[in-house]
Structure formats: structure tokens, C-alpha cells
Amino acid sequence: QVQLVESGGGSVQAGGSLKLSCEASSRIYGSYCMGWFRQVPGKEREGVARIDSGVGRQYYTDSVKGRFTISHDKDKSTLQLQMNSLKPEDTAMYYCAAQLSQCSSWAQYSWNYWGQGTQVTVSS
Fold first, then answer.
1. What is the rounded distance in angstroms from the CA atom of residue 55 to the CA atom of residue 48?
2. How many Å apart are CA 1 and CA 64, to the nearest integer?
3. Of 8, 45, 51, 87, whose CB neighbour count within 10 A is largest?
4. Is there a contact between 95 and 45 (Cβ–Cβ < 8 Å)?
5. What whole-number distance in Å separates Cα of residue 88 and Cα of residue 19?
6. What is the pairing mode between strands 118-123 and 10-13?
7. What is the pLDDT of residues 16-54, one digit of tens each?
8. What span, in angstroms and rounded, lies between the C-alpha atoms of 92 and 45?
9. In angstroms, what CA-CA distances link 101 with 32, 56, 73, 112?
10. Per residue in 19-51, is it b (16+ CB within 10 Å) or e — as a string?
């Protein structure tokens, strides 16, 4: 069982930046995908960014392209999300997740491990 712990959330004004981090309790071996999701109360959880452990290919939801960057350090078992030019609509609880296969789907049932989340609040 792998535990994921997020950090780095907080409050920022629109246009500002935050960097989220996620640390895994143990290294994941083989092909896997790591990603960030976010959820606003009353809405479904949505995928934000994901990255393949092997080739490092990155995927982003359209609303964050050009503003967010996902990165992964396999040796340290950490995942980061650099968020720039933040907007009030980015306000949400952000979750780190791991999928024990190459990146294939945003569908939540296909992700094996989840963190507890870290809150991001962007004020206008």
C-alpha cells in the first residue's frame, strides 16, 4: 500500500503562483502514472495534469494548459505541480493520485492510490 501526502496549498491572489508537492510513502516500480485532480464542493472531481513515469509524457486539462506544469522525481518518489497565473476558478481541493499503469484515463476508478488533498484558494 502506497500513501500519498500533499503539501503546498494555500491562499493567493489572482495572477499569483503556488507549487504543490506530493510525497509517496514508498517507491512505485514498473510503469505507472501520477497525477493531480481537483474538486470543488458540489462538483465532480476533475483531472488537472498527469505524467507517465517512463517517458515523462505530460497531459493537461485544457483550462490549465500553459499555466500549470507537472513534474515527477522517481528517485525521491515525489510529484509537483507548479501553478502560475492562478485564477479564482482554480480554487479547489487538490489531490495527488497514482495509477499502476501507463497514463490511460482520467476516470477515478482507474487510479489506485489517493492523497487526502490540499486546499488552494485564489482570490480576485
1. 19
2. 31
3. 51
4. yes
5. 16
6. parallel
7. 999 999 999 999 888 999 999 999 999 999 999 999 998
8. 10
9. 4, 13, 17, 10
10. ebebbbeeebeeebbbbbbbeeeeeebebbbbb
